[in-house]
Amino acid sequence: xxxxxxxxxxxxxxxxxxxxxxxxxxxxxxxxxxxxxxxxxxxxxxxxxxxxxxxxxxxxxxxxxxxxxxxxxxxxxxxxxxxxxxxxxxx
Length: 91
Known about the structure:
Helices cover about 25% and strands about 25% of the residues. The protein has helices at about 5-15, 70-80, and strands at about 25-30, 35-40, 45-50, 55-60, 65-70. The longest helix has 13 residues, at about 5-15. The protein is globular and about 30 Å long.
């Protein structure tokens, strides 16, 4: 599980550079709070998990999905965004 400091560092970088490379097409999401559990939140950005499928997503402070996938994949992406782990797609 990611701690609050890592989530904060990643989302601060997202807020400064919302066009950073992400593994999906940015897409506005509907507020379907009944289907999503918020795992982390900072400055309006959210790390959420679907209660039915268990997949996760990262939303920016405008409610646009910036990434989605397994919990492990999204945690790894947040670690990369926060600068705690090297990106494997640039090697």
